[in-house]
Amino acid sequence: MGRWEPDARGRLAKAALALYAERGYEQTTVAEIAKRAGLTERTFFRHYADKREVLFAGAGELEGLFVGAVAGAPESAAPLDALTLGLDAVAEMFADRREFACRRQAVITANAELRERELIKLASLAAALTGTLRGRGVAQPAAGLAAEAAVAVFKIAFERWIVPAEERPMRELIRESLAELKAVTSGA
Amino acid sequence: MGRWEPDARGRLAKAALALYAERGYEQTTVAEIAKRAGLTERTFFRHYADKREVLFAGAGELEGLFVGAVAGAPESAAPLDALTLGLDAVAEMFADRREFACRRQAVITANAELRERELIKLASLAAALTGTLRGRGVAQPAAGLAAEAAVAVFKIAFERWIVPAEERPMRELIRESLAELKAVTSGA
DNA sequence: CACCTGATGTCAGCTCCTGTCATCACGTAG
DNA sequence: CTACGTGATGACAGGAGCTGACATCAGGTG
């Protein structure tokens, strides 16, 4: 055993999610999170930039996966087809994390500050996708619009996937949302 | 003359924008804003919920205008056509406020916290548009996707309108973005 | 004149977050 | 084996954002 219990970061994340869920984000102090993880407040801020970020550590992974899949699409693929590959890759990643995603999302939707943070992560994703499309030769503003549209599809499919009543696979919901988007933008 | 100088709210907003532009958002304290407006810190927080909100007082107006135009579209209009009427209404509103919008946007884009707040205002707009479309009989998820797409069009048109080099009318940029969105979603 | 109202000032206090320095197990060089 | 460096952590002070509670006081109202 080392000098400290291992995985301080993970313990902080777990403690934070638990407390945010138990008593609400605003009613939880960083000192309490740290205490539950057996650490101090100062150490919390060494692992996470702020009180919100502890819930968004996985965002970078999602972005990397999405961008990677789009970048790896065949050169001949149209922008929306490349983005669809990215959406599929993301869907796969979510497949076995439904319960965790649900608890986490319940906390986020319950608080405006956390929703703000979530939105900027999605915006960062859109920006990264825009850059990737541009690297594939797509011009502006088409690249930006396609990226925003793909993120909207992800957002809405995710919203429906989270609903406990549905229980449908993420991939299916994404295909449906994509089809709806095409219908609604071409229909007018 | 009343007991106090009139328009405390407006004075605070003006002082805040000036200071944020001068020395940056983070380097400005609320006490400084209040002092420049001839008020106290406590009074600032009576007018604005937090240090960011002072830049977003007009967001409600934008949302109302957009939603009103969509709601007032002919019943026969397709979702995207109704949304286009909303986009046009918004474009008109921006027409004579370019300089103010530029200064404000420069401050916002320079700071992540302010971008977060901007994003949640846009999300609120998308939610309001979704509700309006649903009121017009559009089902989910089509309503949500159409709303998100319209907000994406607004976002990207606005980005281009702000660029000093361009100087093209907002309405024209919106039409262009809309056409690009249709092209990119139907082309694949 | 007495009273109420509403915008503001004053003050105490919590929480978030940061800078700085101390601590101390572990690894490594000698 | 000792000495030293390293890296994660603790301890402490302090600024800034934000809130609650109470005081103040010009104006309107009876």
TrEMBL record, chains A, B:
| Alphabetically ordered keywords of this record | DNA-binding, Transcription, Transcription regulation
Q: Which GO terms describe its molecular function?
A: DNA-binding transcription factor activity; transcription cis-regulatory region binding
Xref: Pfam families: TetR_N
* Keyword Kinase listed: no
Ranges of the DNA-binding region feature: 29-48
All copies of the HTH tetR-type domain together span 6-66
Name this protein carries in UniProt: TetR family transcriptional regulator
Tell me what organism the protein belongs to: Streptomyces alanosinicus
